[in-house]
Amino acid sequence: MIIYGIKTCSTVGKARKFMKSNAIEFDFVDYKVESVDEDKIRQWLTQIDMKILFNTRGTKYRNLKLKELNLDEEGKIAWMAKENYLIKRPVIEYGEGKIHVAYDEALYEEVFL
């Protein structure tokens, strides 16, 4: 299992705490240290919808004024690769290439326990 995000994000913290408290081993990829590239983003998008992955509610999205650009899917992928903070957090890879985005304790209990 790999959890992607940033250490200072509260939802990433909740996900990491959940895994640790349930003795679930995971690797952590911090966007501040290691960027996620377009290939990885495209891989995720084979399983989840762009609306789930692309963060339109964050400060980075507003500061970059991306709403005004009316980005298509390719544009969103390029921006997420350039600015990983535009990726909703956390992204969790588990099992045989499965993906889950965001923190949902009830779902985590169902899927990971």
Key attributes of the depicted protein:
single chain, 113 residues, alpha+beta, Glutaredoxin, four-stranded mixed beta sheet, 6 helices, 14% strand, globular
Give structural notes:
By secondary structure, the protein is an alpha+beta fold. It has a single domain, classed as Glutaredoxin. 42% of the residues lie in helices and 14% in strands. It has a four-stranded mixed sheet, with helices on one face. Strand 3 (91-94) and strand 4 form a beta hairpin. The protein is globular, with a radius of gyration of 14 Å. The two termini are 13 Å apart. The model has no long low-confidence stretch (mean pLDDT 96).
Short summary of the structure?
The chain is of the alpha+beta class. It has helices spanning 10-21, 38-45, 50-53, 59-63, 73-82, 105-112, and strands at residues 2-5, 27-30, 91-94, 98-101. A 4-stranded mixed β-sheet has the order 2-1-3-4, with helices on one face.
For the secondary structure, the number of strands is: 4
Overall tally of domains = 1
CATH topology: Glutaredoxin
Catalogue the unreliable spans.
Answer: none
Name given to the CATH architecture? 3-Layer(aba) Sandwich
Count every helix, treating DSSP H or I runs of 4 or more residues as helices: 6
For the largest beta sheet, what order do the strands appear in spatially? 2-1-3-4
Distance between the termini: 13 Å
CATH class: Alpha Beta
CATH homologous superfamily descriptor: Glutaredoxin
SSE arrangement, N to C: EHEHHHHEEH
> Quick check: average pLDDT?
96
Shape field? globular
Question: Strand content of the residues, in percent?
Answer: 5-15%
* Helix content percent band: 40-55%
